[in-house]
Structure formats: C-alpha cells, structure tokens
Design a protein that fits this description.
This protein is an alpha+beta fold and 175 residues long. The chain is built from 4 helices and 9 strands, in the order H-E-E-H-H-E-E-E-E-E-E-H-E.
Amino acid sequence: MDIKQTFTSAITALILPIIFGLLFAANKRQARRVGSVSVVEYPVVAKAMGILAIVASGIIVFVALRSPANERTHAIAICGTIAVLFFFLPLEFFFRRIEFDDQEIVIRCIWRSERRILWADVVSFIHLPREKEWILETKSCGKMKLSTFLQGLHDLQAVAVKHGKGAWRPANEPS
C-alpha cells in the first residue's frame, strides 16, 4: 500500500465518524417552527452530504471518462451506476418534509404525492432503536418508515403521545 492510499484511508476513517456523529446529533434537535406548524426535515449536515454526493458523482464520472480506452466501457458502467445512486441522496435530503400540528400530519417527498393524515387516522407512531427507524402507521396510508436522521422526530412523537398514538417499543419486542 502506498502513502497516497494510506492517507486517503486515514482521512476517510476520520471524516465518516464525524459526519455520522453530526447527523445523529442533529436528530436530537427540535423540529423547526413555521407559525403554528412544526417541520421535521433532514438537517443541514445531511443536505451538505447530498451536495457532496453530487460533486462526488461528477468526479467519479469524470475519472471514468478519462480511463484508458480498453477499460472505459466498464469504468463508465460502474461509475455511472454509482453516480446515479448518489444522485438520489440530495433529492431525498432536500425534498422530504413532514409538517404537523394538533390537527394533522402532512408528509411531502419527491417520490409520492402529498399525504395529509388526520391524527384520528393515526394508529401508532413508534421508535425502533435497533432498526434505527421510526414507523408511522395510519389507517389510510398504511405503515411509513421514517429515517432516524430526520430532525425533530421527538417532537412529532410528543404530539403523537398527546393524541394517544405514540409508543416506544423496546428493540427486542416483536412487531
């Protein structure tokens, strides 16, 4: 292993835990307030990571295009696939948004149409720490998994508990 690979590995080993630490710390923050509505969304750190994913995609594709002619097709196929996967991160990070108040929950994302859910329609809102996810179960929309990286889920849970819908399920308890 040469010095360049060692240096790159060391930098990666230092940066990734910091990024994930910031994401988990942001999860503990309160939901943003806009008037009487609380907004659950990805933190700035996740959005910055999404932008970096786009930049990394561009670099990966550029490197693939600069590869030797006999390896270019394979390089473009592999790097293009990685770039396409990276492309979806910022879409999720910038366009996922959950708004809630005492009347309803509004879930917006780029993948589906807007969903408006009255609290009376909510069956449960539970946190599964082992799976690192939150589950919002409703009568009309079924079960929705929410990323643990969303900022303000604890506030949503507090309102769910107020409406008699929130519960915490231990990780070893079957669903």
